[in-house]
Write a structure and sequence with these properties.
The complex is a heterodimer of chains A (about 350) and B (about 300). With about 350 residues, chain A is of the alpha/beta class. Chain A has helices at about 20-35, 45-50, 90-95, 105-120, 140, 145-160, 175, 200-205, 210-220, 225-230, 245-265, 270-280, 305-320, 330, 345-355, and strands spanning about 50-55, 70-75, 80-85, 125-130, 165-170, 185-190, 190-195, 235, 285-290. In chain B, helix 5 runs parallel beside helix 6 (about 165-185). Chain B is globular, with a radius of gyration of 20 Å. The model of chain B has no long low-confidence stretch (mean pLDDT about 90). The chains are: A alpha/beta (about 350), B alpha/beta (about 300).
């Protein structure tokens, strides 16, 4: 739990059952629609069903109060906690007031203030994540949206109190992450978590937002897939047709899960806890270390490459003149083994000698 | 500066054309002149983007750069396919740019002051941050912490790399955690933001320098300007998301032209020195270090 290990990433493929692509797209897209369902319970509705003595606190002490991100005190089971979460509205008017759950910098700075308060009071933190993303508007840029998000992420990585995070709906990129760095990360069954919205991803990579469904599949954004990737620890089943169907039951199940996590986390030594959290996030990544292939390139030295090398050398003389530190090859006077492009023949010579 | 270029060096556009049209003043600039002027337009001062080797060469003392972890390369954790499969895109970008991914890190010196430095390259997949970039930014910070030398990160990026999904998103946390450790341990960190630095890179380590410096007129922001205009329906203010805009709103300490950057960083490094370690009871190391620090202060 607190010390979650990533599953070997190469194995992730196998967890996806082989169904036809069209059906897969529709199934994933149905989850996206459920995650975005306006009748879905949000932070305050969930707390109503699982907590007592809820007191909301307001303001970032610098600019204002943001209604898209709420926070304060709550008691979940026997645990007094500091909570914070995105808040969307169920109707248009409330949604406008809450900016559709897209916080501005003052929202994140309020969250940052509450994080530090929790640390001072020794109270655990519970965060509820459900946002399409941080507000992308001009006022947010002027007030430092990026800085506000980065600061919160940094604070959470070293906060000396337990943090339980729940992705309850849309886990929209940096705007979600700014309150989603936890010792344990739970998710409701129909929640999604992604680096960019499917529409945004499609319009950049496919150059049309019509491919959003395909992008949703490619990003593996469902809670179960994120669990397989090791980004989410535990997925909590939703009642009926989904969380919107039964707020009370959803809150009850989620409350139970949060309590169980708190019970496990509050007994940890704080040094161990923070170290394990650091380790968790330190270990995310999928890369390999290749030898520097000083010679590898020569294997591709067929006649096309040689011809290209000759042409390149011609270009260099024409475009740049001699002795300019322009091409990487010229700029770094690297070891003789990696000859310049000009020396196609020298490469071949080496190659023959080597073998 | 022994950066090894693992792949065919990129065909630099300026190599094949004699002239480049400057986006700042629409004038044609002679390439040779551009290169001789650190890729700054001699007519209007427009700062062109820099390849990572030129960036490092510009900041560091000659022949002091030692690259680390040059062999790190992305895997394909999601099996991601858009118009192209991610591994194919990686191979294509490597061949095009000559670098293995969008960041290079290592140790070097600036006017004799040893630093750990990680610099990004926009030409490689828009400088996007995936696992390799996140790992290099982090390892460079860890090296700074371990050796107690200043850390310098030079950003240029469109944001997190979509093809690595939430694992790319998690690099925001990883890099923030790494520079947070520097802050807690009193090791200074200078963030240099160059054109462009947006999205997840600006919303993580790049925003968190003890000192934040940008080159003039660099695009720096969280969301794309088109998105920002679309959501408000308003005209965007002049110079929106440019260095000077951020400077006026309090998010940058300095806007420094490229020609003065090295000198400015060197001046800052005279102040941005790691906090002396506390004296250790039975260890000479602490005392030696404190002694050295005291000397440094007197000097």
């Amino acid at each position: 739990m607190a010390e979650t290990l990533l599953p070997p990433v190469d194995d992730v493929d196998e967890s996806v059952p082989a169904i036809d692509e069209e059906a897969l797209r529709e199934a994933v897209w149905a989850r996206v629609q459920l995650a975005r369902n306006v009748q879905r319970p949000h932070t305050l509705e969930l707390l109503e069903g699982m907590a007592s003595d809820v007191t909301e606190l307001h303001g970032d002490r610098a600019f204002g109060d943001d209604h898209a991100l709420v926070g304060g005190f709550a008691t979940i089971g026997e645990y007094r906690v500091v909570f914070m979460g995105h808040q969307k509205g169920a109707e248009v008017e409330e949604n406008i007031r809450r900016n559709f759950g897209m916080p501005r910098p003052e929202g994140y700075r309020k969250a940052g203030r509450l994080l530090k308060l929790a640390e001072r009071l020794g109270l655990p933190v519970v965060t509820f994540v459900d946002t399409p993303g941080a507000a992308p508007d001009a006022p947010s840029e002027e007030r430092g949206q990026a800085e506000a998000i980065a600061r919160n992420i940094a604070v959470m990585t070293s906060l000396r109190t337990p943090i339980v995070t729940v992705i309850t709906g849309e886990g929209g990129s940096g705007g979600a992450l700014a309150i989603a760095v936890g010792d344990v990360v739970l998710a409701l069954e129909n929640a999604i978590y992604s680096v960019i919205s499917p529409e945004g991803c499609a319009s950049i990579l496919w150059r049309t937002s019509d491919m959003a469904k395909q992008a949703a599949v490619a990003m593996r954004l469902t809670a179960r897939e994120q669990q397989a990737l090791g980004v989410i620890d535990t997925v909590i089943a939703e009642p009926g047709e989904g969380a919107h169907d039964d707020h009370e039951e959803t809150a009850r199940r989620l409350g139970e899960a949060i309590e169980a996590q708190l019970e496990a986390l509050v007994h940890h030594d704080l040094d161990d806890l923070v170290r394990a959290r650091y380790r968790r996030y330190r270990d995310y990544g999928a890369f390999t270390t290749k030898e520097m292939p000083v010679r590898e390139r020569r294997e591709r030295q067929n006649w096309v490459d040689r011809l290209r090398a000759l042409l390149d050398s011609g270009q260099r003389v024409v475009g740049v003149g001699e002795g300019e530190p322009l091409a990487p090859a010229a700029a770094d006077d690297i070891d003789e083994e990696r000859d310049t492009e000009v020396d196609g023949h020298a490469h071949l010579g080496h190659e023959e000698n080597d073998e | 500066m022994p950066i090894q270029w693992p792949f065919r060096p990129r065909p630099d556009s300026s190599r094949s054309d004699l002239w480049t049209k400057c986006p700042g003043c629409d004038e044609m600039v002679y390439n040779k002149q551009l290169e001789g002027n650190q890729r700054v337009c001699p007519k209007c001062g427009h700062h062109f983007r820099l390849r990572v080797d030129l960036r490092l060469g510009l900041l560091l003392d000659p022949d002091t750069f030692e690259e680390r972890d040059a062999g790190l390369e992305s895997l394909d954790p999601l099996g991601f396919v858009d118009l192209k499969a991610y591994p194919d895109r990686v191979a294509e970008q490597q061949k095009k740019t000559g670098v293995r991914d969008a960041a290079v890190w290592g140790l070097g010196e600036i006017e004799g002051q040893r630093v750990s430095i990680c610099a990004m390259d926009f030409a490689y997949m828009g400088g996007s941050m995936g696992s390799v970039v996140g790992e290099k930014i982090t390892r460079a910070a860890e090296a700074a912490l371990e050796q107690r030398i200043p850390y310098i990160a030079v950003s240029t990026s469109g944001g997190a790399r979509m093809q690595e999904g939430t694992l790319a998103l998690m690099q925001l946390v990883k890099t923030c955690a790494a520079v947070e450790q520097l802050a807690l341990e009193g090791v200074p960190y200078v963030s240099i933001l160059s054109d462009p630095t947006t999205g997840g890179v600006f919303a993580s380590f790049a925003a968190l320098g003890d000192v934040n410096i940008a080159e003039p007129n660099a695009l720096i922001g969280f969301a794309g300007a088109r998105v920002a205009a679309g959501t408000t329906g308003d005209e965007l203010p002049d110079g929106f998301q440019r260095s000077e805009f951020l400077y006026h709103h309090g998010f940058l300490d300095l806007v420094v032209p490229r020609a003065e950057l090295r000198e400015e960083v060197a001046r800052l490094l005279r102040y941005l020195q790691p906090r002396p370690l506390p004296l250790q009871h039975n260890g000479e190391q602490g005392q030696e270090r404190a002694g050295a620090d005291a000397e440094a202060i007197r000097g």
